[in-house]
Every structure is written in structure tokens, then in C-alpha cells.
Design goal:
418 residues, alpha/beta, Rossmann fold, 5-stranded parallel beta sheet, 13 helices, elongated
Length: 418
């Protein structure tokens, strides 16, 4: 009989489908975040098994984690040798041991080879079985800065243990946000089919200045480009992100080049393509199409300016120059339209693909409900040089990023960017 709590499995995607994750909880007050961590992992397809130290059980009850995961919770080691059953050397061993939250005490015990709690015993077996371990510290900042703890963290990192940095706030090293933990798990468990590839991504809007404080821009949040950069990182690529002033934070492991105007983005992209050998360039940014012919170098006063006429000129098209400076780079262009039929959208995007000599183009209609700027979801058509269009119905931008990267790799392997 399937536990009712598992009805959320894969409701947000399949990135963790088939993955078994052991969530080890220690005696930090941050343990209250664990049910949500487990549920988010499950929403992406993971099967989650919980192991709790005795101190963790004083903060949240094991029943809560049994409800959250739909699986029995290990609170002590018995004749069932639960730690070996979960992470020992056998066919059904877990794919990841996630220790979240991890106290200073537990981190130092693991580094010293001490196995006196269910959590430290699981960590010991996982190290011996060469199962990936991810540690998410949570404690007071002064404890996190303790020189012995720092040494122990370095010792574990040298053994391949990955740490998710805490948030330093209010004198505390607080547990990382659930979203960040889940992203790091994605990256850890993803198939590294982009290892060795260098990927350039643009994301976000650009600003065109009217005067020093007023700008022309668009509604782009940068979410689509960020999702693409995260997906490429997750799959092992080396990623450079040329980022306009979007509203979401760029991924930590990407090399980020911050820009404001379309001209700055143009210069940055062309410089990157000329000086570095990129395998893939995905131009997801919504760069402004027009800029002022001449901007003001002072704040235009409103009280003495009854009306203001602005003369605009086209900005340089970044994708039109990409193939000229780096012909071997696989180019993915983006094309946003408004209130077009599917056929009109595909036709418009295909014409843009031909002009820029792109290998693929992603077209979307920002006038459709739930699609386009600022939304977490999108609906797109991906069109290739043969005018074959793949429709991705309304879904999360992270899922679109995954499918787009799948298609890019397929096209590269088939030699369709010759």
C-alpha cells in the first residue's frame, strides 16, 4: 500500500526520479525546516528516508518526518542494521546522504570517525561505500568560525564531502534556504552529460537610460536564463552568465558578468565569444531593442518640462554577430512575440533563426496566460534549421530548461550545427 503522503511525488518535475536520498537530521533548531526539505525533494521525484539523532527527536517528532516522507524513520540502530540497509554496499543503496541540519558536534564527530548516533553511523558507512555526502551546517556563527571546526570541514571536503554554505545572519550561521539545498541536490545527482562543455548564457532585461535616474526597459525577470544556467551547471558544464538587472539571484557556481545596457551586454558577449572557446551560446536575455539616440547627462526637471520627446534608435542585435565571431559555437536564440497564433509564432521565429544563423530558436508568446516575463512558467516552441518545431506546453521554466538542454545535446551529437 502506497503511503498517502507520497501523492506529491513528481508534482514539480522528474529531476530526482528514481533517486533515493537519506535525510539525516541532527539536534539543531533548524530541524524544523526538514519536513519542507523532504517534501520538495519528493516533489521532484526523490524517495526520502529519514535518520534522526536523539537530540533531533527533542526538536521535531519522528512521526512528523514519517508523515513528510511516507517512510519509517530510523531513530536508533537495531538488529536490522538500518545504517547498512540504507547506505551499505548493495544494489539498493541510497544515491545521496544529506545531513541537514548538521551541528558542529556532528560535523566534528564524522571528521574524527566517531560513530555514536544513527546519523554519524550512516555517515561512516556512506564514506566507506563511496556514496555522496552533502552537509548543510546550522549553528551560531561563533561555532561556525571555530578553528577546529574549520579544520574538520576541510578534512571532510578533502574526502569529497560537499558543504552547502549557511546564511550568516543575526550572529548565526543559519541553514541554507530550502530552494538552495534542493538545487544543490539536483546538481549533485544529475547525469554529467555536459561535462567538458563551456556554455555562455545571457539572462535578464537591459536598461537604456533617458537620464541618470530614468530608464527604458522591459518586464523580464531573468528567470528563464537563470534556469538554463542552473541546468547546464547541474549537468557538469562550465557556465558564464552575462546578466542584466534581473530580479533573481544568479547561481553561485556560474561565472557572472553583470551588465546594464544592451551595448554593455553586446560588448560582453562578443568579448567572451572572441576570447574563449564556447561550445554553446544560449541567448535568453530580453535585451532592449531600442535606445535613446542621445541621453541626458542630468535629471530632466519635471516642473519646467511639460512634455518630453524621445528619439530612439535600434540597439545592436547580439545574436546576429555571434556566429560571425564564433562560427563553431552552437547558438540558441530566443524570440518573444505578443498575441500571435502558433503558426505565426513559428514563422516569425524561423525567420529570425535564418537571419542570425542560429541552430535553434525558442519562441514564446508573452501575451498568453502564465507564459513569459516574470512568471515561473512558460509555453514555448523550439524550432530548428529544418523548421521542425517542438511544442512544450505550459510548464515550469526549470522543466523547459531541462528539455532545451536535452535538445541542444541531441543536436550537437547529431552534428546539426555544421
Amino acid at each position: 500500500m502506497i503511503h498517502p503522503s507520497k501523492d506529491i511525488m513528481q508534482t514539480k518535475g522528474t529531476k530526482l526520479k528514481g533517486k533515493r536520498i537519506v535525510l539525516c537530521i541532527t539536534g539543531s533548531v533548524a530541524a524544523v525546516q526538514c519536513p519542507e526539505i523532504a517534501r520538495q525533494l519528493m516533489r521532484h521525484g526523490a524517495e526520502v528516508f529519514t535518520v534522526m539523532s536523539s537530540m533531533a527527536q527533542k526538536i521535531i517528532h519522528p512521526y512528523l518526518m514519517e508523515w513528510a516522507t511516507g517512510n519509517p524513520v530510523v531513530t536508533e540502530l537495531t538488529g536490522k542494521i538500518e545504517h547498512v540497509a540504507l547506505v551499505g554496499e548493495h544494489a539498493n543503496k541510497a544515491d545521496l546522504t544529506l545531513i541537514a541540519p548538521a551541528t558542529a558536534n556532528t560535523i566534528s564527530k564524522i571528521a574524527s570517525g566517531i560513530d555514536d548516533t544513527p546519523v554519524t553511523s550512516v555517515a561512516s558507512i556512506a564514506l566507506g561505500s563511496i556514496i555522496p555526502i552533502m552537509v548543510v551546517p546550522a549553528m551560531h556563527e561563533s561555532m561556525y568560525r571555530h578553528p577546529i571546526l574549520i579544520e574538520n570541514i576541510k578534512k571532510l571536503q578533502a574526502l569529497g564531502v560537499e558543504f552547502v554554505e549557511p546564511r550568516i545572519e543575526e550572529g548565526k550561521a543559519k541553514i541554507a534556504e530550502t530552494e538552495e539545498i534542493v538545487k544543490r541536490v539536483f546538481r549533485k545527482l544529475a547525469e554529467k552529460d555536459m561535462a567538458g562543455l563551456r556554455v555562455l548564457v545571457t539572462a535578464g532585461p537591459t536598461l537604456e537610460y533617458i537620464d541618470p535616474i530614468r530608464v527604458i526597459t522591459n518586464k523580464s525577470s531573468g528567470k528563464m536564463g537563470i534556469a538554463i544556467a542552473e541546468e547546464a551547471l547541474r549537468r557538469g558544464a562550465e557556465v558564464t552568465l552575462v546578466y542584466g538587472p534581473g530580479t533573481v539571484s544568479p547561481p553561485q557556481d556560474a561565472r557572472v558578468v553583470n551588465v546594464e545596457t544592451t551595448r554593455e551586454m553586446h560588448r560582453a558577449v562578443i568579448s567572451e565569444l572572441k576570447s574563449n572557446e564556447y561550445n554553446v551560446f544560449i541567448a535568453a536575455a530580453a535585451a532592449a531593442d531600442f535606445a535613446l539616440e542621445k541621453s541626458y547627462d542630468y535629471k530632466v526637471p519635471t516642473c519646467t518640462t511639460p512634455e518630453l520627446a524621445l528619439k530612439l534608435k535600434p540597439t545592436p542585435k547580439i545574436i546576429d554577430e555571434a556566429k560571425k565571431v564564433s562560427p563553431d559555437t552552437f547558438l540558441v536564440a530566443f524570440k518573444a512575440e505578443y498575441k500571435l497564433s502558433n503558426n505565426e509564432l513559428i514563422e516569425s521565429a524561423y525567420e529570425r533563426l535564418k537571419v542570425s544563423n542560429a541552430d535553434l530558436i525558442v519562441a514564446n508568446d508573452v501575451g498568453r496566460e502564465g507564459a513569459g516575463f516574470k512568471a515561473d512558467t512558460n509555453e514555448v516552441f523550439i524550432i530548428n534549421k529544418d523548421k521542425e518545431a517542438i511544442h512544450i506546453p505550459l510548464t515550469l521554466k526549470q522543466e523547459i530548461a531541462r528539455k532545451l538542454v536535452d535538445l541542444v545535446l541531441l543536436e550537437i551529437k547529431s552534428g546539426n550545427n555544421d
